[in-house]
Amino acid sequence: MKISLMDNFIANSRSNTFGNYEKNKSASAEIELVTTRKAKPNFDINRELANRTFIRPLPPKGHIVKNNLFSAPMNFVQEVKTDFKALNSAWSGDANDHQLGKLNDLGMKLGGLAIASYLFTLKKAPVTKAMEFVGLGSFFASMALWPKLALDIPARLIHGFSPFMRYEDSQGRKKGFFQDNQYIPFDMLKEKDIDRIGNRLNVPKDLPNRREAIEERMRQIALQNNTMWMLTAGFATPVMSSLICNRLEPYIENIHNKRLNKKMESLLTSLSEQSKKFTSPEIEKGVNEVLTLHNNEPITDEILEEIAKALTIDLNPNVRNGVKKDLEKLFIGEEVRYNIQPDDLKNISNTIHTLLKDAAGNKILKENLEAIVPTETQLNALFTQNGYFEKSLNELDMANVLSDITSQVSENIKNNPGVNIDESLKRKLSKALRNTHDNSSKMSLPKILRANPASVLNADAQKIIQDASKAMTKFCAENTALNVYSFNKLAQAPNTIKAKYWNDTVNALVDILKITPAEIEETRYDRKLVGELFNKKIWNLALSKDGSYEKFVQDFSHRVSEIEKTVNPDNLTNKFMSEIDSAFERASNEFKGLGFTNTAQRLVGINSSEAGSLKGITKAFVKDNLSTLENTMSAILNKANVFRTIANDPEFKFISGDAKVMPREIREELTALAEYLTTEGRISDYSVKFDFIRNPNPNLEDLSSLEFENGQIKYKYYNAKTLQKDGNIIKSDESFFRNIMKTLFGTKLDKDTENALAKYSGVKERLISYRANMYNVVGNLENFMFPSHITNMTKYYGDGRVDPASYTISTPKSRSNAVGAPIDETLANTMKRMYNTRKWLKMFGGFGAGLLGFTVLSQFFFGHSNGNYKKNKA
Amino acid sequence: MILPVQNHNSNNLVFGLNIDEEELKKHPVLIKNTLPNRMAIEWDKFTNAITMYPARGLKGSKNSNFYEFLTMGVIPYLTGSAMLMAVFNSANKFFAAAEREKASKFGSKMALGVVFYGLAKNISQNFVTLPVKWLTGVDTEEPYAELKYKLPEHKNDTDITSLEYHKVLESLEFPRWDVKYGNEAKGEPRNIWFDKIAKKIGLGYDLNDSDQDVKPRVKEIAVKTNFAKAFSSYMWAAIGVGMALQNTWDDFFKSATWKPWKGKPFVQTMGRFIDSTFNSAIQLYKGQEGAKGFWGKHSGKVLIASAVLSTLSTVTNVLISRHKPSKYDSKDIIESDRKYVVN
């Protein structure tokens, strides 16, 4: 069949091509050539025909594409060029199949980019935004990497050739060498390459038609690989992509965090200068809109409200109220004045008519009503006579105007004897005229008379407001810069520097405490269980004698000390605070210069007190967030220190002194409460948690030491379960309260803790400061009784020193900041997150690994189903 | 040796497809492009793609061809979609309640996103192919069935045929013009289809060789249509994902049931699904509540506009031809007193 087809083709070619040529050659003399303008000038058809070279097929240019590290960039450039060419051809309508196939891939990538871009706009945190594009990239990377990794590399190693190799045909189209099982351009492979592959495939060297046998094996292996690719890619790509994202996210977070920190530190070095980039035209634009709208209009309360609003976009209502007060003071003065013009009389008369009609109802006839309502002429005479048109009227004048109008009505009644109005109705009518109808949309004569305030929004007034808007624009830019700095450093929001530090430190704590995946799994549903686990771990360390305790303190302190490099409390409490002072002082002075003294006060506070001012709020954000962060970290170290102190001094001589020993049962209760408070220390609970259930009749005789067993405390008396039944809350035991506070915060640091912290002076200082603060503000009994009072008390410095002459202040807020976040909850959240990630990784990492193993192993079964050449050999 | 064609196993024909088997044995047979036919074809291709073709591929059979390889392309699409859903959902049940709820909320939306991606991509192809069909008469999706002969796998292998489904304009380098010629034996004019298209696209009536005039234009239409499909369908797929990720689905997933045997709750779920789909489209357009900045408020509009614009521009491009019909008749432009060379 093949032969006959070929014969036909040659015969046809001869008849159509050579035959015609011979015929044309003999007839060439009769041909009259018509030259066209576009023809080649030196083209000689006869010479070209005589030459015959044109009928030869062009030499093939197809070749195997070499893809290695060096050729990859050029290949990439060529691919991009080909894509653009394909795009152009497709748009013009003359693309080939290969080009259209490539455009489908391009469309898929563009669609993916559209999805990632849209999701980018939905996400708020910078890292999650970036992860949208990482996800897209990893998905396409996985699509390309999976066949390489799971099939191509193993196949190269096992069979000696790549089933995914590519070739470029004579038209420059790059295609998979084995993509079509029934059309494989083996002629592109050199003999020596085929031989090499044959040797690797163990094809006998003496086999007749060895090349064919090798090609057949290659075809078979490549087809099996292609099929395996189709079967596994769908499972592998999403899993691989997710795993890539999972592994990349911490790196992206690190990069983001470092860049953000660098940017923020640079912002702080020239905050005033860099604040210019936060300048927004919104304030001046908004103010100008209001001024244009109300140009030369009487200044009303509503207009002032609008101006104040436009001046204080994004600032709090307290500042807005200050601005409004200043505007009132500047443009209205001590008392509001109003103007009445002759043009207003008609409206006034009509208003009186309506009010009297409504008040009288059907008690006055229509014609009688007309008779008693003062006419425009009457009002004109009245107002002219009293000089109301000539001056601005204050509230006293306005009262006189109203009184005069009422008198005029009375006079009209008197002058019209036919109008029969009794005293009661007269009073009702008078009341109707005076009623202001506050908070009502009803018509009111006093309001109508006050329709035209004397102050006008003229050019001078507008100039003052515009100057204020310039000052406010400048201040808001600086304020935004300050807020950007403090937010990125300290806000409890995703991807801030504090959030990263917090997560890293708590994650590190889980590692340092050697909490195992099994322990995480057991405790993850309940923070109580996490708290118990935490106590167990810390006891274990506190009771160790092999240096584990010191190592824990040092390892954790090392992690905690990262705060100096990242959050940088020094900068926040010194440089940043002085920047806040400078920015607010500058703005305050400027506003004072413009006559906006109230505004200035709302920005910086009154006298030296910043309470309630915007500056106070800005500083409080930093102080509160920083102290919560530092105190939470210190609380963890303090817990270890307390346990170590008890472990080293089970007789509690740090409280009772050397001479006296506290009963064991009391010490056990103190220890149990210490375990409890250092784990679940939540300020809202603190007051109630001191309601600790104890034995009302403790054994006071037993003075033996506390016992420890297998790295844990062994309670002889204290038993929370039995105490639930037999125990009681002893509220009046002040001594117990003072002792627990002393146990937790009021002693010297344990010597082992102190030694371990030698290298971490910053951490140590913060720990001492935390303990002192807790002892002073939380451990102060008076403060519990009178939460917001300033009370005289002994001030403790946290390192054993006391100052009997000093006193300290405690408020609920200061206590809340002192306590920090509850440790069990912090740890439980982290452990839950770790469990979730680990579970997910275990599921899909395991699946991915299994799939990879299965796919790689399958390679060993490829190429073995056809053993014909062995039979031939035999 | 090629075995007689009678050996074709008629069971290979798909239930629901009205194909004249005798004709099929002689030559490729056109299939009417209707939704049921397309579904029957896709089903047949799908069942082969997950059974016969991989089996042949894994054996390394010589009969496995490029059509089978391409048909197997549906496997990664489906397994990949299922896997993507699993990645976002299957571990959630092990999480604590609060995390589970949060993860499931996101996971459900992602799963819906996978479904909407596929639906939007496939449905949106009609936004291109249908206008082209209505305006030019060229159906770029028109399928035909063809019986292929294989080599026997072993000496007792008598079923050596395989049924393949292609589209007439699937390959632009080798369009199957042959199936578009009329059957003269049945009295049809040979150029019946080409005449119709020539008339529709304004090339004129009663052309001597309408096929020669029409082919370049049809090829151009097919190339541009395929490009339009590839380019715009992924943009519509992006809209599908965007819709699935709107907050309007939060309430829906809280009480949705996918179990038809539950009766009324299932019916209610279906009703709410339609409502939520509609609302999600509105939210995609309007932006989510509390969104800030230009992109926060308008990114959905930009996404929708990109898809609409990509479809409109590419479909318009299909309708604009480089192959303009001549405004003059040949007799008007050939000067009888001059001599011409005809190639």
What does this structure look like?
The complex is a heterodimer of chains A (874) and B (343). Chain A is mostly helical and 874 residues long. Chain A has four domains: 2-55, no CATH class; 72-247, no CATH class; 342-449, no CATH class; 497-566 and 613-821, no CATH class. In chain A, 66% of the residues lie in helices and 3% in strands. Chain A has a three-stranded antiparallel β-sheet, with no helix packed on it. A two-stranded antiparallel ribbon of chain A has the order 4-7. The longest helix of chain A is centred in the N-terminal third of the chain and has 60 residues, at 210-269. The two termini of chain A are 32 Å apart. Chain B is mainly alpha-helical. Chain B has 13 helices and three strands, in the order αβααααααββαααααα. Chain B has a three-stranded antiparallel β-sheet with strand order 1-2-3. The radius of gyration of chain B is 26 Å and the shape is globular. Chain B starts with 20 loop residues before the first helix and ends in a 10-residue tail after the last helix. Residues 1-8 of chain B have low confidence and may be disordered.
What portion of residues of chain B is helical?
Answer: 55-70%
Cα distance, first to last residue of chain A? 32 Å
Regions of chain B with pLDDT < 50 over 5+ consecutive residues? 1-8
The description of the largest β-sheet of chain B is:
3 strands, antiparallel
* Multimerization status: heterodimer
Count of helical stretches of chain B: 13
Unreliable parts of chain A = 1-32
Question: Within the largest sheet of chain B, what's the order of strands?
Answer: 1-2-3
Structural category of chain A: mainly alpha
Shape by Cα distribution of chain A: flat
The number of domains of chain A: 4
Mean of the pLDDT scores of chain A?
85
